[in-house]
Amino acid sequence: MNDTYFQRIADELKIHVIQVLSTAQLLEEGATVPFIARYRKERTGSLDEVAITTIRDRLEEFEEFDKRKEAIVKSLTERNLLTDELTKKLDSAKTLAELEDIYLPFRPKKRTKATVAREKGLEPLALILLEQSPTCNPEKEAEAFLNEEKGVKKVDEALQGARDIIAEMVNENADVRAMLREYFALEAVLNSKVIKEKEAEGIKFKDYYDWQEPASKAAPHRLLAILRGQNEGVLKVSVQPEADRTIKNIYKFYRKGFCPAWEQVREAIEDAYKRMLSSSIENEFLKQLREKAEEEAIKVFSVNLREMLMAAPLGQKTVLAIDPGFRTGCKTVVLDPQGKLLENTVIYISQSEKALEASAILIKQLIVKYKVQAIAIGNGTASRETEAFIKSLKLPPQIVVVMVNESGASIYSASEVAREEFPDYDVTVRGAVSIGRRLMDPLAELVKIDPKSIGVGQYQHDVDQTNLKKGLDDVVMSCVNGVGVEVNTASKQLLSYVSGLGPQLAKNIVVYREANGPFKNRKALQKVPRLGPKAFEQAAGFLRIRNSDNPLDKSAVHPESYPIVEQMAKDLNCKVDDLLKDAELRNKINLNKYVTDTIGLPTLNDIVKELSKPGLDPREKFEAFSFTEGVNEIKDLKVGMKLPGIVTNVTQFGAFVDIGVHQDGLVHVSQLADKFVKDPNEVVKVAQKVMVRVTEVDIARKRIALSMRSERKQVEKW
């Protein structure tokens, strides 16, 4: 790879080029982003996951650039078209667009108007016109090119052919195209209009039936909405600057004076723009706008997904989980502290008084029988009614009752993963199990679902699915490795996201565990089929074995650093276990004494920090949450009500909040705070508990407007 690429990345990230080179080398060696960020700080200068991911992605982009350049050079070479000048131009290109512009005149193409004109021998005439000599008379010059055999019978036909050739030259002029790209970026206007007779069909796009704004200022979410309207055949969309002014900007590349020949060239330029350049640059510019909008949408989705995955876990408790329902009843399951299904049944809360009484008795029996410590209720249909029923039972106060976001639970319950886990149960039981497990450990359960089905995204079905998957997989991997995984209880889905493993090794670990019993220590992982030294190096530090015969196995200290910790203990005349328990002993450690050529203070500081709180879960402590009693449906809402809620999704235009009425309300970005908010994620996060005020209720359209601004600010103009 070209060395200049490393310098460019370093400049973009404002870091030293040696940091980029070292990171690139580690990635080339097969190291993962979490492993590099956590265990190779000395080599990267303590770069975080964001910087390492950016380096990885930029290197991949440069690799694609090199592949395309190589293909172009090969094509030109095979056709004997590659010159020193052309090679120099290709070598100086920095973007794919520049490469394609240089290659455009030489790209094999179908027969065009210019091709036909050249076959008629009119290219010399085009060159004469381009010279724009003051003495040039276009009509007289054209007479010399009349040729009945070639089909050039009239002067007008000769001049038209010459103009066609000039138009193609203008279209293929790399400097012109570069100028137009910049001009479109500055001056293009985004226009959308409803297609005739599509008004009723596309009512959801009504806001964009006659929309116009500078393209450079179009909000990403608005652009994606408009493009969706175009894809659905409702909207006609254009992104163009004012045509006459744009064309005049091209004149400067060709005008040599005002003369009869210039009029011919001017006409050719106008034809080139209207027939070729306009649509070509528009498509390119719109693609660029879409990619930026998609990048922003994926970023928003990634931030939301991280917050949802890192939501506070209840922990290992015996849980009774309920998937609410009216007609078919509420599917009810009991799970042990490891999430194992102990019992399943159905309760009915809306059929009759007799059924209600029987359900109450059944719930109390289950609680006593299994010593239930918490109750999880899915937040879908009948959730508030189910919650009210459970609370009416006057259960012991230590039993927490929690409403759980069940978004994506139906996806899981019908998945191959769920069928494999529970082959003898139907989707309703699997869904209830998923709800209960989400309360116990959101991360461990949500990794079983395709991230884009979790419901915290924005236009996730409109963006490039490959880029979306890559971005979301990065988030899941970061979260899983950031928390750490208990290898003796983890599912193969959770293990598959551990650094260095993947689906096959994760499956091998589970199969080995089932055949041989729990792993006694990290070292035993090396007995798993196909889990070689490299995979062990990448994964070991993120895998926990809490009951290991080595106390460090429950921590994030990597096995490669065990000798250092053992030496620390030896120097203090104590055992490793003593270092984990005694802060005074740890305070006596002189880290400088253990610095080597490969292990520096960043890693040593991490080791000591980990010794103080081995295997500490970085997620927040769980806190129970309850909605306002008596406010169960949208019709119960009144303007001015203040209600507790949970943020379910954050978008660029605001945040959606569940207030317990089966319909999320929207806190528009202008209502999130008293001061101006550019990025809603600066104020709220998914799964955050907030207090909101109802400002508008539209029962017919099922729309709820909420505010988080102080009341005194409501009267002020935003």
Layout of helices and strands, plus pairs?
Blueprint: H1 3-13, H2 17-28, H3 33-39, H4 41-44, H5 49-78, H6 84-92, H7 96-103, H8 113-119, H9 123-131, H10 138-143, H11 155-171, H12 174-187, E1 189-194, E2 210-214, H13 220-231, E3 235-240, H14 243-251, H15 260-309, E4 319-323, E5 330-335, E6 341-347, H16 353-370, E7 374-378, H17 383-391, E8 400-404, H18 409-413, H19 416-421, H20 427-440, H21 442-446, H22 465-483, E9 485-486, H23 492-495, H24 503-516, H25 533-539, E10 543-544, H26 562-571, H27 576-581, H28 583-587, H29 601-612, E11 642-651, E12 654-658, E13 665-668, E14 689-698, E15 703-707, H30 711-714
Parallel strand pairs: 4-7, 7-8, 9-10, 13-15
Antiparallel strand pairs: 1-2, 1-3, 4-5, 5-6, 11-12, 11-14, 12-13, 14-15
Helix pairs in contact: 1-2, 1-5, 2-5, 8-11, 9-11, 9-15, 11-15, 12-15, 13-15, 14-15, 15-22
Could you describe the 3D structure shown?
With 718 residues, the protein is α/β, with parallel strands linked by helices. Among the domains are: 3-89, RuvA domain 2-like (Arc Repressor Mutant, subunit A, Orthogonal Bundle), CATH 1.10.10.650; 113-301, Tex N-terminal region-like, CATH 1.10.3500.10; 319-440, Nucleotidyltransferase, domain 5 (2-Layer Sandwich); 634-714, Nucleic acid-binding proteins (OB fold (Dihydrolipoamide Acetyltransferase, E2P)). The chain contains 30 helices and 15 strands. The strands form four sheets. Strands 6-5-4-7-8 form a five-stranded mixed sheet, sandwiched between helices. Strand 12 and strand 13 form a beta hairpin. Residues 713-718 have low confidence and may be disordered.
